[in-house]
Amino acid sequence: MQLTEIVYYPVKSMRGLNAEAADIRHAGMPHDREWLVATPDGMFLTARKLPHMLLWQAEPHSDGLTLTAPDGSRFKVPQMGWNQVRQVPHGGAVHPV
Asked: What is the pTM of this model?
Protein backbone atom coordinates (compact mmCIF):
# COMPACT_ATOMS: atom_id res chain seq x y z
CA MET A 1 0.00 0.00 0.00
CA GLN A 2 1.26 3.51 -0.81
CA LEU A 3 -0.06 6.78 0.61
CA THR A 4 -0.36 9.24 -2.28
CA GLU A 5 -2.24 12.18 -0.75
CA ILE A 6 -3.15 13.60 2.66
CA VAL A 7 -6.22 15.83 2.75
CA TYR A 8 -7.91 17.34 5.79
CA TYR A 9 -11.15 19.30 6.09
CA PRO A 10 -11.06 22.09 8.70
CA VAL A 11 -14.82 22.73 8.33
CA LYS A 12 -17.19 19.83 7.72
CA SER A 13 -18.50 19.91 4.11
CA MET A 14 -16.08 22.59 2.87
CA ARG A 15 -13.15 21.99 0.51
CA GLY A 16 -10.18 20.11 1.86
CA LEU A 17 -6.55 21.16 2.15
CA ASN A 18 -3.57 19.07 1.09
CA ALA A 19 -0.86 18.38 3.64
CA GLU A 20 2.67 17.15 2.98
CA ALA A 21 2.77 15.40 6.37
CA ALA A 22 0.35 14.72 9.21
CA ASP A 23 0.61 14.06 12.92
CA ILE A 24 -2.05 11.40 13.47
CA ARG A 25 -3.30 11.31 17.06
CA HIS A 26 -5.79 9.17 18.92
CA ALA A 27 -8.60 11.57 17.92
CA GLY A 28 -7.39 11.81 14.31
CA MET A 29 -5.59 14.54 12.37
CA PRO A 30 -5.31 18.00 13.94
CA HIS A 31 -7.67 20.53 12.30
CA ASP A 32 -9.68 17.84 10.50
CA ARG A 33 -13.38 18.69 10.87
CA GLU A 34 -12.78 20.80 13.98
CA TRP A 35 -15.50 23.23 12.85
CA LEU A 36 -19.01 23.01 11.37
CA VAL A 37 -21.59 25.45 10.02
CA ALA A 38 -25.01 25.80 11.65
CA THR A 39 -28.07 28.00 11.34
CA PRO A 40 -28.78 30.54 14.10
CA ASP A 41 -31.25 28.07 15.65
CA GLY A 42 -28.58 25.33 15.86
CA MET A 43 -29.35 23.17 12.80
CA PHE A 44 -26.09 21.81 11.39
CA LEU A 45 -25.55 22.45 7.67
CA THR A 46 -23.74 20.00 5.40
CA ALA A 47 -23.08 19.59 1.69
CA ARG A 48 -25.81 16.96 1.53
CA LYS A 49 -28.39 19.73 1.83
CA LEU A 50 -26.23 22.61 0.52
CA PRO A 51 -23.82 21.27 -2.15
CA HIS A 52 -22.37 24.76 -2.76
CA MET A 53 -20.64 24.48 0.63
CA LEU A 54 -18.06 22.35 -1.19
CA LEU A 55 -16.97 25.50 -3.06
CA TRP A 56 -15.91 27.29 0.15
CA GLN A 57 -12.33 27.01 1.42
CA ALA A 58 -11.39 27.10 5.12
CA GLU A 59 -7.81 27.70 6.27
CA PRO A 60 -7.03 27.16 9.96
CA HIS A 61 -4.64 29.51 11.76
CA SER A 62 -3.44 29.61 15.36
CA ASP A 63 -6.02 32.34 16.07
CA GLY A 64 -9.00 30.88 14.16
CA LEU A 65 -10.07 30.36 10.54
CA THR A 66 -10.14 32.25 7.29
CA LEU A 67 -13.11 31.31 5.10
CA THR A 68 -12.91 32.02 1.37
CA ALA A 69 -16.19 32.19 -0.55
CA PRO A 70 -16.51 31.02 -4.17
CA ASP A 71 -16.37 34.68 -5.31
CA GLY A 72 -13.01 35.12 -3.54
CA SER A 73 -14.28 37.23 -0.63
CA ARG A 74 -12.67 36.29 2.69
CA PHE A 75 -14.02 36.20 6.24
CA LYS A 76 -11.96 35.79 9.41
CA VAL A 77 -13.40 33.68 12.21
CA PRO A 78 -11.53 34.01 15.54
CA GLN A 79 -10.71 30.99 17.70
CA MET A 80 -13.30 30.52 20.46
CA GLY A 81 -14.22 28.20 23.26
CA TRP A 82 -16.09 25.04 22.29
CA ASN A 83 -19.48 26.47 23.22
CA GLN A 84 -19.13 29.81 21.44
CA VAL A 85 -20.56 30.68 18.03
CA ARG A 86 -19.31 33.09 15.37
CA GLN A 87 -21.84 34.52 12.91
CA VAL A 88 -20.75 34.51 9.26
CA PRO A 89 -22.34 36.00 6.15
CA HIS A 90 -25.19 34.21 4.34
CA GLY A 91 -27.17 33.38 7.47
CA GLY A 92 -25.04 30.75 9.14
CA ALA A 93 -22.70 30.41 12.07
CA VAL A 94 -19.40 28.57 12.50
CA HIS A 95 -19.00 26.42 15.61
CA PRO A 96 -15.89 24.74 16.88
CA VAL A 97 -16.67 21.04 17.34
From this structure: 0.73
